[in-house]
Amino acid sequence: MKKQISLLGGLILLIFLACKQGSDVPEPLNIQNIQSVAAKEYSFTQNPVWSDEFEQSGLPDEKIWSYDVGGSGWGNNELQFYTKADLDNAYVKNGYLTIEARKESFENRNFTSARLVTKGKKDFLYGRIEVRAKLPSGRGTWPAIWTLASQSEYGSTYWPDNGEIDIMEHVGYDPGVVHATVHTKAFNHVINTQKAATQLVSDFDQSFHEYRIDWTPDYIKAFIDGKLYFTFQNTSKGWEEWPFDKKQHLLLNIAVGGNWGGQKGVDDAIFPAKMLVDYVRVYGLNN
Question: Residue 106: which domain range?
Answer without folding.
Answer: 50-282
